[in-house]
Structures are given as C-alpha cells and as structure tokens.
Amino acid sequence: MTRPTRTAWSTVPGEDERYRPLYARALGLRVVNPGGVLCFLFFEGAVALAVLLALAELVSWWAVVVLPAAVALMVKLNDMVAERVVRSAALVPEQERDRFRRQMEPVIGRARVPRTLPGVVVATEPAPAPPWERQQGTPEWRSRWSTGPDGDSAARS
C-alpha cells in the first residue's frame, strides 16, 4: 500500500516518516514535528494526569479517555494553524518579504538618555535655604517663626 506523497512545504521528508513517533504519525501531523519526549508527555502525561485527577475524585473516570483526546485535538489544531501560516507566508511575494525585512532591521547607534530620574527636578541654580537658616538674627524672622527646625524657641538662639 503506497501513501500519498508529501507536499513541498512539509517539514518531514517521506522516507523519514517511519522514524517519527507513533503519536505524531497517528495524528497525521504535517508541520509540527514533536520529538519522542514531547509525544510521551502529550499522551502518557495526559493519561497520568487524568488518572491522578480521577483518583482524587476531582473528575469522573471518563477524564482518562477525554483528557488525552482533548490534548490530541489541540495538537492537531495547532498543526493545522501552522500549516495555514506556512502556506500564507509562501504566497507573499519576495519583494514584500524584502521590504518587511528592511522595516524590521534593528537600528544600531546611540540613543540619548535623559540624566534625570523620574520625579527629580534638576535646577541650574542652588535651591534657596529653608526659612530657619535664612536671616536668623533679624527680628522679622523671630516674629514670623516662633520655633526653629529643632523645635527650639527662636528667642533662645
């Protein structure tokens, strides 16, 4: 019995098909090519998780059948979406691909970075002194401010 030949966009050549894991061959994956460990996690991991959930009585025993089937359905759906993406990318003309690559090239150079921190105001002239340090000896200061910065009376200073 001969199988139909694979299309040109397939990632797995026809002669290497027999070396793929059984899980990938059974689902008929064309673009997604999971390895042996990932196939083990997809199938046996889903069965083990379903058995643990059923033993903990969080789900019914139907989950042992349904969960691996749901995982297989999602893997197949992912393969179908990847197939559509590969086909649509192949339809884009080379000129458009070059234009897109030019737009996405990183720009190499130096960027100006402001030297201020957020919320910090940088001034060119020094900040004025607080009122208790300005003109401490004048009577006007003593009348306006009854206490200094330490809570002392201005009359004591």
Task: Kindly describe this structure.
Helix 2 runs antiparallel to helix 3. The chain has five helices and no strands. The model is unreliable at 1-9 (pLDDT under 50). The chain has 157 residues and is mainly α. It is flat, with a radius of gyration of 37 Å.
Task: Looking at this protein, list some descriptive labels.
157 residues, mainly alpha, 5 helices, 46% helix, 0% strand, flat, disordered N terminus
Class of secondary structure makeup: mainly alpha
Percent helix range: 40-55%
Provide the succession of SSEs: HHHHH
Number of strands: 0
- Described by the principal axes of the CA atoms, the overall outline is flat
Mean pLDDT: 77
Radius of gyration: 37 Å
How far do the termini sit from each other? 109 Å
Q: Uncertain spans, ≥5 residues at pLDDT below 50?
A: 1-9
Q: How large is the count of helical segments?
A: 5
| Strand fraction | under 5%
Largest sheet, if any?
Answer: none
Topology:
Blueprint: H1 22-27, H2 36-55, H3 63-91, H4 94-104, H5 139-144
Care to give the gist of this entry?
The chain is an all-alpha fold.
